[in-house]
Amino acid sequence: MRRADSKKTEQQRLALQSELDAGKTQVERNRMGQFATPSALALDILEYARTALGPGEPVRFLDPAIGTGAFYSALCSVFPAGQIAAATGFEIDPHYGRPAAALWKDSGLDLRLADFTAASPEAAYNLVICNPPYVRHHHVVNEEKVRLKHAAAQACGVRIGGLAGLYCYFVALTHAWMEEGGLAGWLIPSEFMDVNYGRQVKRYLLERTTLLHIHRFDPADVQFDDALVSSAVVWFRKAPPPRGHAIRFTFGGTLRAPRDERMVSAAVLATEPKWTRFPAAPPRVKSALPTIDDFFSIKRGLATGDNRYFILTPEEIEERGLPREMFRPILPSPRYLPTDEIEADAEGNPLISQRLFLLDCRLSEEEVKNRYPRLWAYFQQGSDDIAARYLCRHRSPWYVQENRPPAPFVCTYLGRNGTARGRPFRFILNRSAATIANVYLALYPKPFLAKALVEYPGLDREIWKALNSISPEKLFGEGRVYGGGLHKLEPKELANVPVPDIAALVPGGGTRSYQCELFTYAAE
User: Please, is 383 exposed, middle or buried when counting C-beta atoms within 10 Å of its C-beta (0-12, 13-18, 19+)?
Assistant: First the structure.
């Protein structure tokens, strides 16, 4: 295909893409993970591939999730027609596949309307470029997961975890389709670099391939208008990694003109749980500094199953005639919490404008029916819809809530940089009896610290100040990030954040070392 023709065809493809996207709801496309690659990004990726392959090398191209053909269009634009020896694409959805096949019918593309994950491998391709479907694990039925796990293990020797998204299986399965020494470029969510299910993907990249380069786009620069996901391009060759191998990490800007970069050895990556630290941070050096985990046990706030049903205002409780003793206070969402220091009234209720209460009944259904008829009637209203929801139907009885006692220190679970407060994550001093929902993390002092907090009035406020003095960079370095610049901290991630200032605050410590202070209070 001549380049002038490829430009015209790309314009036709973009019009077709818009028309086909409009023919589906956002919910339908989300369920199937259908997020089209922008033209400029596709071109950038294929230009990079041309440089990596070397001049004149015949190209045998494979796209396992081709859609309308953004990468194939870029291939035709970047590579001379005579250099493209073969091109194959798979598309499972006829809504996109049939019009795309008609569009490319005279171009030489072998477009197969089939499920790539069920196809028999053909080890014939030296260039794999793909933006695989971003389907979260809960949209993959269990029977499919079993099949995919088995097929992935056969293809590349790595067993993918059950919480992995569909894109992880695509990466693993394609191993069997590549020639030895073949090049692959994957446009995938960067979350695999940090989360537990990504460990097997990272193991595959380090042990079964020569990982060349990972470029992570700035999360504030979302690559897909219709998917808030932080994206990365992962490049590797199907070849055993050489001894002493190092991988190029880049961030921001474009693939070929990044803002930052760093070389990181494969040996460092093998022990580093969070690859998104690179290239900004140097390789982690084991530190003797205390971390939040040394002082606190951290738990996610409770998930009710349905906040609208289980969390009520005082007015709603009174209007329905529900027993107040079956409720306990709960903090509102962070956006409705103007202060970071929560005082309480004589009953332990937080002194805030938006007062909310959690329905927390631990009585049996028979006891509720006999003792609290109005509450029984309320449970009957939710017995069909609410009780059938995932969390509720796994409880006995279905309305029982998790045990989350009030925590004296609370941290927001999600945060953004550049907020009006100047801090992406908020540490809240909670002097009330309010529990928290899963938009917060609860920090429960370990026994030695709990004792010190009782013995030394005012210590809680000093510790709260120390927590809020932790730099955003330290918190970001342990957490994870999503498209649009949204950061998240899981309990284990927050636990790893260093907090030397807290050790210095424990009364009686003075200039003594953190270890002495810790063991002094732990032993008392």
Answer: middle
Tell me what the mean pLDDT of segment 347-363 comes to. 96
- Do residues 422 and 447 touch, judged by C-beta distance below 8 A? no
Cβ neighbours around 198 below 10 Å, total: 24
pLDDT at 515: 40
Dihedrals phi, psi of 37, to nearest 5 degrees: -75, 130
Sheet holding 125-130, edge to edge: 110-112, 84-90, 59-63, 125-130, 178-189, 231-237, 210-216, 246-253, 258-265
Assigned token pair, 487: 């950061």
User: For residue 100, what are the CA distances in angstroms to 23, 42, 72, 78, 134?
Assistant: 15, 17, 11, 20, 20
Give the integer Cα–Cα distance in Å for 439 and 356: 15
Gap between the Cα atoms of 160 and 186, Å rounded: 17
| Whether residue 397 has a cis bond before it, omega within 30° of 0 | yes
Euclidean distance between the first and final Cα of the chain, in Å?
A: 80
At position 429, the amino acid (one-letter code) is: L
Q: Give the class (CATH, top level) of 292-312+404-523.
A: alpha beta
Instruction: Kindly report the average pLDDT of the chain as a whole number.
Output: 89
Under the banding of pLDDT at 50, 70 and 90, the label for residue 523 is: very low
Q: Indicate the domain borders of the chain.
A: 3-277, 292-312+404-523
Tokens 């970071």 locate to: 340
Q: Does domain 3-277 have CATH number 3.40.50.620?
A: no
Q: Please count the helices (runs of H) and the strands (runs of E) in the chain.
A: 20, 20
Whether pTM > 0.85 for this model: the answer is no
What stretches of 293-399 show up as alpha helix (H) in DSSP?
307-310, 314-320, 365-371, 373-382, 390-393
Gap between the Cα atoms of 486 and 258, Å rounded? 21
Torsion region of 67: left, alpha or beta (phi above 0 gives left; psi -120 to 50 gives alpha): left
- What are the tens digits of pLDDT across the range 309-324? 999 999 999 999 999 9
Q: What are the backbone angles phi and psi of residue 304, rounded to the nearest 5°?
A: -75, -30
| Chain-centre distance for alpha carbon 272 | 17
Count of C-beta atoms within a 10 Å radius of residue 365: 16
| Cβ(265)–Cβ(284) below 8 Å | no
Whether cis (ω within 30° of 0) applies to the bond prior to 94 is no
Q: Report pLDDT for 524.
A: 37
If DSSP states are collapsed to H, E and C, what string results for 223-268? CCCCCCCCEEEEEEECCCCCCCCEEEEEEEECCCCEEEEEEEEHHH
3-state secondary structure of 183: strand
Provide the strand spans (E) within 317-426.
Answer: 327-330, 341-342, 356-359, 409-412, 414-416
pLDDT tens profile 103-162: 999 999 999 999 999 999 987 899 999 999 998 887 788 889 999 999 999 999 999 988
Distance CA 240, CA 254 (A): 28
